[in-house]
Write a structure and sequence with these properties.
- By secondary structure, the protein is of the alpha+beta class.
- The chain folds into three domains: 142 residues, no CATH class; 120 residues, Jelly Rolls, CATH 2.60.120.1440; 72 residues, Phage tail protein beta-alpha-beta fold (3-Layer(bab) Sandwich), CATH 3.55.50.30.
- Helix content is 36%, strand content 31%.
- It has ten helices and 18 strands.
- Strand 1 and strand 2 form a beta hairpin.
- The radius of gyration is 22 Å and the shape is globular.
- The two termini are 36 Å apart.
């Protein structure tokens, strides 16, 4: 499905299903392995996710026609090289069928062109952005500024500190993109999980965008979990408050989440209203812990892959619907964690390198 950083047409459809949480377990694992295989793959995935969001972000089908106006605006902000444009057009003709049923080719061509121009043109635009910024005024420079992207691997965590005192802790297998302009707008794009300690500014509010929602600080400390393929964004506030708006309701009045509350956005709406909970459990990863309370094994397996790089599989589908209550710490080895799960569920396992296969046969 995926080869290096380039995607086949089948791969495009699979990524669409992944972003819409409509993919199979096998597809999810394949795509996540590809995303984490290299910085180039992660960059390609981030670009695809942006296209998907521009096209509506509600299903596994690509609607690049809807994203075309936004794409044109983006491309219109940079200088266009004629030779490079011709190369892109030649590439497009190679991937788009020259024959189609009457009336179907123009729309299909524009849809694929919109996607491929972003994928091919993104690197090209990045090369020219620095030069273009010099020609603009201070305001234009801020708009065209290069974006910084910080990514972590499984088991790796990073702390990012800013001049205004704001601090962000980025969890494992996560990615954070933001404009590298100290005095500019504080806007972040998050994939994965991060904890924010924000020094509030009415003049420069801090905004975090995920595939599901927009979160705006109102002087606070909060955690956001928006794992790829999870189909939801979880927000837990430890202090202060934030304003939460689902991507499907951007014109609606935002929902306020205050200290000690937790909320979830799923499928373009608030799936879990702000509720008081033990938010300490939601940020346990900062202490090197994973805490599960009656959690479905499917979700446990995902967390183990994201946080420890352990890829877990099950020979029987029924295993995925079981639940687990447990606490894992950074002092425990992978072998300890795997054995605890097997004992708790009364199942067996076979481990090989970073993969584990669980089975109901011959339980421990």
């Amino acid at each position: 499905m995926v080869e290096d950083t380039q995607l086949t047409r089948r791969g495009f459809r699979a990524v669409g299903r992944y972003l819409a949480s409509e993919c199979s377990e096998r597809e999810r694992l394949q795509i996540e392995e590809w995303i984490n295989s290299s910085p180039e793959s992660r960059q390609t995935f981030d670009e695809l996710r942006e296209i998907w969001m521009l096209s509506g972000g509600r299903s596994g089908e690509w609607n690049s026609w809807r994203s075309l106006p936004s794409l044109r605006k983006k491309l219109g902000e940079v200088a266009v090289d004629v030779d490079r444009t011709n190369q892109m057009e030649i590439f497009l003709y190679k991937i788009v069928p020259t024959k189609a049923s009457e009336g179907s080719l123009p729309g299909r061509l524009l849809q694929i062109a919109a996607v491929m121009m972003v994928l091919i043109g993104a690197a090209y635009i990045g090369l020219y952005l620095r030069e273009v910024a010099k020609r603009y005024s201070a305001v234009s420079q801020e708009r065209a500024a290069l974006h910084e992207t910080i990514s972590t691997k499984s088991g790796q965590r990073v702390t990012i500190s800013f001049e205004d005192g704001t601090r962000i802790l980025l969890n494992s297998a996560s990615s954070l993109r933001y404009a590298n302009v100290p005095s500019g707008r504080r806007e972040f794009h998050l994939t994965g999980e991060a904890y924010f300690e924000v020094v509030h500014s009415n003049r420069r509010p801090l905004i975090v965008r995920t595939s599901d929602a927009v979160i705006r600080d109102v002087g606070t400390k909060f955690n956001i979990a928006a794992w790829p393929g999870d189909g939801q964004t979880q927000v837990a506030v430890t202090d202060g408050k934030v304003l939460l708006t689902p991507n499907g309701q951007l014109n609606a009045r935002p929902t306020t989440i205050t200290g000690g509350e937790y909320s979830v956005v799923r499928k373009g709406r608030i799936a879990v209203e702000p509720t008081y909970t033990d938010v300490g459990d939601k940020i346990a990863w900062i202490r090197g812990e994973l805490i599960f309370h009656n959690e479905r094994i499917r979700n446990v397996f995902r967390q183990l892959q994201w946080n420890y790089g352990i890829k877990c599989y099950a020979t029987q589908p029924s295993i995925y619907s079981r639940t687990l209550t447990a606490t894992f710490t950074s002092h425990q080895t992978r072998q300890d964690i795997i054995r605890i799960i097997a004992l708790a569920l009364r199942i067996s396992y076979k481990a090989s390198n970073d993969s584990v296969l669980f089975s109901t046969r011959n339980p421990l």
